[in-house]
Amino acid sequence: MNFKNINTDLLKKISLIAGVFTFIVALTMIFSIIQLKTIDPLDNPVLTEIKEQYDSDPDNAVKAEQVRAMDLMARKAYFASRRQAETGSYLLLAGAAVFFFCQYLLYGNKKTIPGIPGQLPDETDIRTKRMKHILVSVSAIVAMAIISSFLLRDNLPDLARKRPSKKTEKAVRQVAVRDSYEPDPVNFPFFRGQDSRGIAGGSDYPMNWDGESGSNIKWKLQIPKDGKSSPVIWGDKLFVTGAENMQCEVYCIDKVSGEILWSASASGIPGEPSEVPEMDYDAGMAVSTAAVNARAVCAIFANGNLICLDHDGNRKWAKNLETPENIYGYSGSLIIHEDLLLVQYDADEKVSLMGFGIEDGELKWETLRRGMASWSSPVLADFNGVTQVIINGNPYVSGFDPVTGKELWAVECMSGDVAPSAAVNSTLAYAVTDYAVLAAIRPGTGASIIWSDNMFTPDVSSPVATDDYLFLATGYGDIVCYDATKGDTLWTRYLMDQFYASPMVADDKVWFLNRSGVMHVINAGPEFELLAESSLGEAADCTPAFSGGCIYIRGRENLYCISGN
Fold first, then answer.
1. Among 376, 382, 404, 400, which residue's Cα sits nearest to residue 390?
2. Which pLDDT does position 157 carry in this prediction?
3. Is 157 a member of any domain?
4. For 93-114, how does the pLDDT look when each residue is reduced to its tens digit (9 = 90+)?
5. Given a cut of 90, is residue 485 above it in pLDDT?
6. Where a domain ends, among 152, 186, 205?
């Protein structure tokens, strides 16, 4: 590069502005660290006081609205601070880069000017001193930028990707076709049940219990290792996962007696990382729910370990998919379609959907999805006789052929941190995420949004749909019923506590489990009718499983079997 015509004064001014800018932004972000450590927007004493007043007078509608409004403001403040931190990290790195480049142009390549004859300084020595000057002056700002960026960085934007489908073998057919949907009354094979739709078969599930007194508690069991994965069931066997540091395990439990039949290690898999990956402090390594069928149970963990076992705990195969790094950690649950294990693998560096042979673990196909990482899970649906995998992503809600991985349709409508999974009925798919929109989508060629709403948007909990109604629960404490076809709000109730567990439809009722472990049982109809409220006696974030007249709930400490008998 020719530096002869560079305006030195201009470079000095740009360098000064960039340096001051970077220094101020870095100080601001460091101050934000201190502020966020000392002032938690979600732990507001005024909000706590109003909640306590509401607890003493739960019928006070004014207090209820005050609590809801303040809770909403607190959560908006929390997410706003996160977005500001993300923006600040980019500004820091950009400012530091401009400053360094200007310093390099000014001093790193500038020719020395000879002085008095006989006193000519050594060129190499002067250039060395100049480079030291650059390193010393820049290192403080660059170090501050990097440290602040890593302390406060939320997420790095991912580039929009094309959507090739990388296949390792020929697809055996163009599209998948199944019989009509009918939930099994005994088997509860995936997160949110059969096809991961949130609808359970069976009837006569108990509505009243008390975890502290033991009323209608058939058994409870402390799982050896912690986890946020929900239980899945096949026959008389229940499966959950747990992890402590890098020690990951799959547990098989007799669903009748509550006895642990076996545990299998999911650690020591070639390629697994040596350290626990970065993740949300409240999540952990065992967030993803396992998938089970008549021949196998499969589980995945936040370090990328994917394992398949038979029903006796013998390892069929295992592999590491590399650590899916993102700000919250990995949370996608598994589903099985015929002889394929489907894995939604979302990370900062790659967003994909993969199909593995369930018997041998061979990668049959991998489709690189468009967009950025999300924390949702795949759902199986049948539209116009065609079986599809529905994924709620950012920004695309998409349908894929489960046999080939081919994208069938996509609608661009989501944004932000997408965690809820999609809901489906016989004609529509529903997608939502907080601070974005709830969208009812007519899938297929020319897929489009037929109605939308942004009043009630869950941040973690997934909605559930029947052909008539759509039900959802928000992180602010709202439960809502929509007309599934028109989008009209049929009823809402503010129940104060947050919801992470997804609502389930079973026995013509909707079951809403809040984070305090209280189950609200509502009639699955157009008018609000509270049928029962029952407490587990401990916090709960996992979605319950329904099987054979019993409800299985994983609390923060224990796994419960709830039975009317």
1. 400
2. 36
3. no
4. 787 778 777 777 766 655 444 4
5. yes
6. 152
C-alpha 506/C-alpha 483 separation (Å) is 18
Specify whether 79 is located in the same domain as 131. yes
Peptide bond just before 395 cis, omega within 30 deg: yes
- Check the CA dihedral 158-441-232-469 and report its sign: positive
What does 501-559 look like in DSSP terms, one character per residue?
SPPEEETTEEEEE-TTSEEEEEESSSS--EEEEEE-SS---SPPEEETTEEEEE-SS-E
| Ranges 48-62, 304-318, 430-444, 516-530: which has the least confidence | 48-62
C-alpha dihedral sign at 41, 42, 46, 50? positive
Written as six digits, the tokens of 528 are 């609000």
Residues 175 and 45 placed together within one structural domain of the fold: no
Q: Is 163 helix (H, G, I), strand (E, B) or coil?
A: coil
DSSP secondary structure string, 317-350?
EEEE------SS---PPPEEETTEEEEEEE-SS-
> What gap in Å lies between CA 369 and CA 352, rounded to an integer?
5
122 and 199 housed in the same domain: no
Pairing between β-strand 423-424 and β-strand 305-309 as defined by DSSP bridges: unpaired
Q: Give the pLDDT mean for 372-393.
A: 97
pTM of the entire structure? 0.73
Whether 556 and 465 share a structural domain: yes
Euclidean distance between CA atoms 512 and 505, whole angstroms: 9
How far apart are the C-alpha atoms of 419 and 393, rounded to whole Å?
8
Domain residues for 132?
A: 8-152
Query: How many structural domains does the chain have?
Result: 2
- Asked if the model's pLDDT at residue 398 lies above 60, the reply is yes
Q: Which residues contact 522 (CB under 8 A, 6 or more apart)?
A: 479, 509, 510, 511, 512, 528, 529, 530, 531
User: Stretch 114-127: mean pLDDT, rounded?
Assistant: 48
